[in-house]
């Protein structure tokens, strides 16, 4: 439970660093949450609702309040926000995916605390079976993985579509640890991780470390323009060449379902697989060089 709480806290910090099209209410609520002030954030949301009713901005703000309350261990408050989101969101509309995902994520995390891991996993699995949108499914799977993937055999990827050196099945890497770096071509945090990842790989590749970089098609290319897969693939290769120096020999696997299976809704996501093909570490966050080194050394130091 302690490790899960730490990972959740780190994930929330990372969420606060995302730059995007957050509207004024959402930005203000997020700032209050980061200061541990749920009450003021809730008051701001109430004022907004009186003036504007329930719209996309309001629902996103409630999603943030649910996350913040859960992180601050205010579980009753968190569930009040979850229940409101469930009442208001009846379908998987694109503009509602973020707050819907927040409701599912927070309810499962509260269940972990109150009912145990098994109950939470059953809840998330049921939600996953109903979910249709790729990003929503990946987000639900991320939560499942955070409490259950470590210690399991690594799920396989479809290797038919790739960039760079041809990747091999995990069985072909048996006896070597494998580090998965789940990334997206538009992801600033992924690019910021590149230099660290390159140094770590160069340090440990002579000891057998394999690095793979799974991703998926998002339907966008340069300047977030809509493109067909072939154009996006070309753009991916260009981004990797320009922004991931020292990692040119790393195979890039393009597999949507594989990314969903590994919960690649937050990028970067790391998974470290040991010599027997078992996932030993999983985290949907950036990592320091010291932490990456420590995790890899722990697997390398084990007897084959």
Largest sheet properties: 6 strands, mixed
What CATH architecture label of the largest domain applies? Alpha Horseshoe
Sheet with the most strands: spatial strand order: 1-4-3-2-5-6
Instruction: Give the CATH class of the largest domain.
Output: Mainly Alpha
Which segments are poorly predicted (pLDDT under 50) over 5 or more consecutive residues?
5-22
Compute the number of strand runs.
6
Give the distance, in angstroms, between the N- and C-terminal Cα atoms: 29 Å
Number of helices: 12
Secondary-structure-derived class = alpha/beta
Order of helices and strands: HHHHHHHHEEHEHEHEEH
Number of domains: 2
Task: Give Rg in angstroms.
Answer: 20 Å
Which band does the percent of strand residues land in? 5-15%
Gross morphology:
globular
- Average pLDDT for all residues: 93
Binned, the helix content reads 55-70%
Structure description:
The protein is an alpha/beta fold. The protein has two domains: 147 residues, Alpha Horseshoe (Serine Threonine Protein Phosphatase 5, Tetratricopeptide repeat); 139 residues, 3-Layer(aba) Sandwich (Glutaredoxin), CATH 3.40.30.10. It contains twelve helices and six strands. Helix 3 runs antiparallel to helix 4 and helix 9 packs across helix 12. About 6% of the residues have low confidence.
């Amino acid at each position: 439970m302690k490790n899960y709480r730490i990972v959740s806290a780190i994930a929330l910090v990372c969420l606060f660093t995302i730059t995007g099209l957050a509207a004024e209410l959402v930005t203000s609520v997020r700032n209050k949450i980061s200061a541990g002030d749920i009450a003021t954030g809730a008051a701001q949301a109430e004022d907004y609702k009186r003036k504007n009713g329930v719209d996309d901005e309001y629902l996103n703000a409630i999603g943030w309040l649910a996350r913040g309350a859960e992180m601050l261990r205010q579980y009753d408050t968190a569930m009040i926000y979850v229940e409101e989101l469930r009442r208001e969101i009846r379908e998987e509309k694109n503009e509602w995916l973020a707050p819907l995902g927040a409701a599912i994520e927070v309810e499962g995390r509260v269940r972990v605390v109150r009912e145990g891991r098994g109950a939470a996993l059953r809840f998330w699995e049921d939600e996953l079976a109903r979910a249709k949108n790729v990003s929503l499914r990946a987000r639900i799977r991320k939560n499942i993985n955070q409490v259950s993937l470590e210690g399991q055999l690594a799920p396989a990827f479809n290797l038919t579509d790739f960039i760079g050196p041809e990747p091999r099945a995990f069985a072909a890497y048996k006896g070597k640890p494998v580090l998965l770096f789940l990334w997206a071509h538009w992801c600033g945090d992924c690019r910021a991780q590149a230099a660290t990842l390159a140094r770590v790989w160069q340090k440990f590749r002579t000891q057998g470390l394999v690095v793979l970089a799974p991703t998926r098609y998002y339907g966008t290319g340069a300047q977030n323009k809509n493109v067909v897969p072939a154009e996006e693939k070309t753009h991916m290769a260009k981004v990797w060449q320009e922004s991931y120096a020292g990692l040119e020999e790393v195979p890039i696997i393009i597999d949507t379902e594989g990314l969903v299976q590994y919960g690649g809704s937050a990028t970067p996501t790391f998974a470290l697989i040991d010599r027997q093909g078992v996932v030993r570490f999983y985290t949907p966050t950036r990592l320091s060089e010291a932490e990456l080194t420590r995790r890899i050394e722990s697997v390398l130091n084990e007897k084959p």
